[in-house]
Amino acid sequence: MSTLEVTFVSADRTVWSGHAAQVVVPAADGSMGILPRMQPTLAILERGAVRIIGEDGEVTERAVDGGFVSMDRDVVTIAVDHADRATAAR
């Protein structure tokens, strides 16, 4: 099973880093799901929640006010000014 290598950073810290099965971000033109083996993508983020579903099914969710996401060859980088805890693990 393919996974995503995710690095989620804010201006002052690494928010989350590791491997995930799926990432959902609040892109400027609507919610965008990112899965392994997708086409390379670069998108601007709006206010909303970034949701990371880990390999083990654990969900991490953070509220963001904007930023960007890039994805290429199963490497996902999410960069925002700040990220607040919205919800934690299920």
Automatic annotation (TrEMBL):
InterPro entries for the chain: ATP_synth_F1_dsu/esu (IPR001469), ATP_synth_F1_dsu/esu_N (IPR020546), ATPsynth_dsu/esu_N (IPR036771)
Highest rank taxon of the organism: Bacteria
ATP synthase F1 complex delta/epsilon subunit N-terminal domain span: 4-83
Keywords of this entry: ATP synthesis, CF(1), Ion transport, Membrane, Transport
Keyword Transport set for record: yes
Keyword Membrane: yes
Places the protein is found: Cell membrane
Membrane topology: Peripheral membrane protein
Signal peptide residue numbers: none
Assigned protein family: Belongs to the ATPase epsilon chain family.
This protein's name: F0F1 ATP synthase subunit epsilon
